[in-house]
């Protein structure tokens, strides 16, 4: 079970974890041992609450495919267990971040004094540039 909040958690059978060989340099060991992890989580087929599914599918993240499958590849560590824990932690963080309520943006206006300062500085800048002209 992967806990997401006090009331919501993911069952282990909803997450597919496959061992793969890690890419990149690493000496002889990297060519023999499949220590990297390929994690797949199908949002639509999961037993998550509808609100969680909506938030996840609305995310613009490269790890989420068009079919609604989250794909995470973890290969930073030397052991399969450490990479698996890393992939699960990243999945947990992605889901928690997706459902976190966003603060509503309130549009603001500049104050009258700020507008006056802006216009005055523009006027001053114009005078400075006018003084650069040729003297008659």
Automatic annotation (TrEMBL):
Family annotation (InterPro entries): Pep_chain_release_fac_I, Pep_chain_release_fac_I_sf
Annotated segments matching region Disordered: 99-136
All copies of domain Prokaryotic-type class I peptide chain release factors, residue ranges: 21-37
SUPFAM superfamilies for this protein: Release factor
Keyword Hydrolase: yes
Family: Belongs to the prokaryotic/mitochondrial release factor family.
UniProt keyword annotations, A-Z: Hydrolase
Protein name per the record: Alternative ribosome rescue aminoacyl-tRNA hydrolase ArfB
Domain of life: Bacteria
Gene this chain is encoded by: arfB
GO MF term set: peptidyl-tRNA hydrolase activity
Enzyme Commission numbers on file: 3.1.1.29
Compositional bias per record (Basic residues), positions renumbered to this chain: 101-136
Lineage: Bacteria, Pseudomonadati, Pseudomonadota, Gammaproteobacteria, Pseudomonadales
A Pfam family it matches: RF-1
């Amino acid at each position: 079970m992967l806990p997401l909040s006090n009331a919501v958690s993911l069952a282990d059978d909803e997450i597919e974890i496959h061992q793969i060989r890690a890419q990149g340099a690493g000496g002889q060991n990297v060519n023999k041992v499949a220590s990297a992890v390929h994690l797949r989580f199908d949002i639509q087929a999961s037993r998550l609450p509808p609100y969680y599914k909506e938030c996840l599918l609305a995310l613009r993240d490269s790890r989420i495919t068009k079919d609604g499958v989250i794909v995470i590849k973890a290969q930073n560590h030397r052991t399969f267990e450490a990479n698996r824990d890393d992939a699960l932690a990243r999945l947990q963080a992605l889901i928690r971040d997706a459902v976190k309520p966003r603060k509503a943006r309130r549009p603001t206006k500049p104050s009258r004094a700020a507008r006056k300062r802006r216009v005055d500085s523009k006027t001053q800048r114009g005078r400075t540039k006018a003084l650069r002209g040729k003297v008659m």
